[in-house]
């Protein structure tokens, strides 16, 4: 245990770390009487603020400190709207005016690009939301061993904050989750204990399409809904059908695995179908409980429109959609090109992309379930060089190998969609030796009140 734990300091917040917490440096005397530098992480602070903090616990290289008093506040500091703000790790920036959050996101993207030698002026101001609340169409809540339903406490995955509200989830979703919490309590159903692997209810996933209004409620449990549980399950169906006619999929998913994930060994459809319909860009998508689909549909629409505007697809062109998921970008682009080939590693997403294309009457797409590293060679061999390539990799980025393969393939235009400005910048740098020039970067805020930012960029072969 460090001797500095429990010590108080007055300090100034220099900058924010990648999790959105303030960083400060203080000096203290160690046991030998020497002055030593101490780096502190102070959640819920903003750059430039003068604060009094108490060192709470040692972290790897920094000490975590608790904010005791704000001596000089940031001009954009506001009171957080959500009662769970301090405990729940979901929205780390609710104490910051939305305009300030957007500016910070723009700066993050500029710094990430500058670090790789790109010109920061290419980065436009982050596109925000008009109303940055209740934007999420999917939430995962967790049951604690006593059966309480809620969200994980920040930094403590064993502790659950009992759910009263959630200001970023769709309103109806929270209402339905609260009703399920009440149902679990009325039937005295136990929650799952991660340590002992005992207890029944593990997670509740709620999905809502803001376009079609359809909802999915998926309950993850360690047992099947029969035997002693038949009565409780039947009561759940009655309650949901009576109060939430928009629930088109009520699922009970058996998960006995030790891994604490929303996965299922057996699906029981309690009511409706095993998927819901959603819509984006005028296309209809089937969404299963495990389908990756953009979680902020309002901003996702802006992102798709932006990608089309940047990519300028043409009727006589071929295109590759790398990391295509269920076809969120593929379908609207396919309407505007001659042929589109989508590559994605998850087989169920590819099956879904094929079905989505078929459901929407799209006949000029091919989808391949492959790791991008191999899929890109296969597609180029059979399909030829596309004029346009779009990529939307996971947070870890596409990686040098894939980027160099793209560079060697020499598409005329590349649209890069990314949820991580750092891997985005390093990936794009890989394209420079192949004659590409970065034209424009547009950050889009898909996750208000969090540190995350999405980007859309255009690269052109010189
Ligand atoms: C950010 S998502 C984008 C999905 C899609 N563009 C969309 O907007 O719905 C990234 C996708 O990359 C896929 N993926 C991850 N690693 C991959 C790999 N090595 N090769 C191909 N696809 C991969 C994931 O399964 C996921 O669907």
Automatic annotation (TrEMBL):
S-adenosyl-L-methionine binds at residues 294, 323, 344, 392. Its EC number is 2.1.1.190. The keyword Membrane does not apply. Keywords: Methyltransferase, S-adenosyl-L-methionine, Transferase. It comes from the Bacteria. Gene3D superfamilies: 2.40.50.1070, Nucleic acid-binding proteins (2.40.50.140), Vaccinia Virus protein VP39 (3.40.50.150). One of its GO terms (molecular function) is methyltransferase activity. InterPro entries: MeTrfase_TrmA_AS (IPR030390), MeTrfase_TrmA_CS (IPR030391), NA-bd_OB-fold (IPR012340), SAM-dependent_MTases_sf (IPR029063), U5_MeTrfase_fam (IPR010280). The keyword Disulfide bond does not apply. One of its GO terms (biological process) is methylation. It holds the Pfam family tRNA_U5-meth_tr. The active site is at residue 419. NCBIfam families: rumA (TIGR00479). Belongs to the class I-like SAM-binding methyltransferase superfamily. RNA M5U methyltransferase family. This is 23S rRNA (Uracil(1939)-C(5))-methyltransferase RlmD. It comes from Caldifermentibacillus hisashii.
């Amino acid at each position: 245990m460090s001797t500095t734990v429990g010590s108080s300091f007055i300090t100034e917040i220099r900058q924010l770390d990648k999790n959105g917490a303030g960083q400060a440096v203080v000096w203290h005397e160690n046991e030998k009487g020497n002055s030593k530098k101490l780096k502190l992480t102070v959640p819920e602070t903003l750059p430039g603020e003068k604060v009094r903090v108490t060192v709470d616990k040692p972290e790897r290289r920094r000490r975590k400190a608790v904010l005791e008093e704000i001596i000089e506040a940031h001009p954009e500091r506001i009171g957080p709207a959500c009662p769970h703000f301090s405990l729940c790790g979901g929205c780390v920036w609710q104490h910051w005016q939305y305009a300030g959050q957007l500016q910070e996101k723009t700066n993050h993207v500029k710094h990430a690009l500058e670090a790789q030698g790109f010109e920061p002026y290419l980065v436009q101001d982050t596109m925000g939301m008009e109303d940055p609340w209740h934007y999420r169409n999917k939430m995962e809540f967790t049951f604690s061993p006593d059966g309480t339903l809620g969200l994980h406490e920040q930094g403590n995955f064993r502790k659950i904050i009992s759910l009263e509200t959630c200001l970023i989830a769709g309103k109806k979703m929270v209402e339905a989750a609260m009703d399920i919490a009440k149902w679990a309590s009325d039937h005295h159903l136990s929650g799952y204990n991660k340590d002992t692997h005992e207890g029944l209810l593990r997670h509740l996933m709620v999905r809502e399409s803001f376009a079609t209004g359809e909802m999915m409620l998926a309950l993850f449990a360690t047992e099947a809904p029969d035997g002693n549980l038949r009565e409780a399950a039947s009561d759940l169906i009655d309650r949901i059908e009576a109060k939430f006619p928009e629930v088109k999929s009520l699922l009970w998913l058996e998960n006995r695995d030790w891994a604490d994930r929303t996965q299922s060994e057996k699906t029981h459809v309690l009511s409706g179908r095993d998927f819901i319909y959603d819509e984006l860009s005028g296309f209809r998508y089937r969404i299963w409980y495990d389908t990756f689909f953009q979680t902020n549909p309002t901003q996702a629409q802006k992102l798709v429109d932006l990608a089309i505007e940047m990519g300028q697809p043409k009727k006589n062109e071929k295109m590759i959609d790398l990391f295509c998921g269920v076809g969120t970008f593929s379908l609207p682009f396919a309407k505007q090109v001659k042929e589109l080939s989508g590559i994605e590693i998850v087989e169920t997403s590819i099956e879904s992309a094929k079905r989505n294309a078929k459901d929407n009457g799209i006949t000029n797409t091919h989808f391949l379930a492959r790791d991008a590293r191999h899929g890109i060679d296969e597609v180029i061999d059979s399909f030829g060089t596309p004029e346009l390539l779009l990529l939307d990799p996971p947070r870890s980025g596409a990686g040098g190998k894939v980027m160099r393969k793209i560079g060697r393939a020499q598409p005329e235009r590349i649209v890069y969609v990314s949820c991580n400005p750092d891997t985005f910048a390093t990936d794009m740098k890989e394209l420079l030796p192949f004659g590409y020039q970065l034209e424009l970067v547009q950050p889009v805020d898909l996750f208000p009140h969090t540190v995350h930012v999405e980007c859309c960029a255009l690269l052109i072969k010189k």
